[in-house]
Task: inverse folding
DNA sequence: AGTTGTAATGAGACTGGTTCTCATTCTATC
DNA sequence: GATAGAATGAGAACCAGTCTCATTACAACT
């Protein structure tokens, strides 16, 4: 998932958002954000430390918690029990996921505008019955990816 | 979530489905199925062994795997990292979930028929772009429940 | 009823992903 | 450059979940 912010401005946006919470945009955190920004699909923790051997495990876990807490990244529960991570939608764009139950991978799919209008209406309908206050929604499709048929 | 099968027939349906895979519908498995059938919301493992102290932990985990494998129950990834379990949709009815990020609870919501027609159309649209073969979908709303506002 | 093969059970050991600890090192601000 | 709070990293600790293995229950046959 590409960012829709111009390449140069992503770092600035992240730094700003961290500053707001008295947090620093340090080397390790930058490495993780850059990695997620350039990844074609949501990334598992294992993939992450493999491709970023400079970042120690204990620190990487902490960075993920900090970045998630600051709303910079989002955690996705995949079908294999291992979470995946991606930039949050304020830094990319709203989209949905295809979850493969064979290999565990997660794929991004961006719906059309009319699609999203319909979804928003449906979410409102669901929530009304319950006094629930919605923050976000996710329409996940579970099945088998092209590689795993 | 109530079952739509008449009370008496649920056990028969489950037994049949297990038999098909040369599995037995034993005491412990029955306890878990009954518990899920009478529960108002998806149940975490902790809740489960608390309310079923007769079922040992190691057996309970195994029962859940067997029942999930046989398509009798479904595992839901909640926002707190702990899975929840419910009867699968062949035994209840298709529905969606409201996930509270404050308390971690999961609520069932049953959409209207027209709602589901629309959703099905949208899922087909998403999947086409990817050569992905869909098995099921889930439209989850993340936010705060009435208790946690 | 007895035999046999396979499924199921349960206590406890074990695993490995994740979190915690703590001593040390940065970094923003005064 | 002094100070305080944030960040770091190695390793210990934790604990949900899995595995092992000896035992028991069950179904299908003779
Ligand atoms: Mn995504
Ligand atoms: Mn449900
Ligand atoms: Zn796959
Ligand atoms: Zn709540």
Result:
């Amino acid at each position: 998932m590409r960012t829709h912010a111009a390449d140069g401005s992503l770092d600035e946006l992240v730094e700003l958002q961290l500053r707001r919470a008295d947090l620093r945009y340090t080397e390790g955190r930058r490495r993780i954000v850059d990695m997620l920004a350039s990844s074609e699909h949501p990334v598992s923790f294992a993939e992450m430390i493999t491709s970023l051997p400079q970042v120690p495990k204990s620190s990487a876990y902490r960075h993920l918690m900090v970045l998630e807490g600051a709303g910079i990244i989002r955690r996705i529960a995949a079908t294999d029990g291992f979470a995946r991570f991606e930039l949050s939608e304020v830094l990319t764009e709203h989209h949905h996921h295809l979850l493969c139950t064979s290999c565990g991978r997660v794929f991004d799919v961006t719906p059309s505008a009319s699609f999203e209008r319909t979804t928003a209406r449906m979410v409102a309908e669901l929530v009304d019955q319950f006094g629930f206050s919605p923050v976000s929604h996710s329409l996940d499709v579970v099945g088998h990816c092209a590689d795993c048929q």
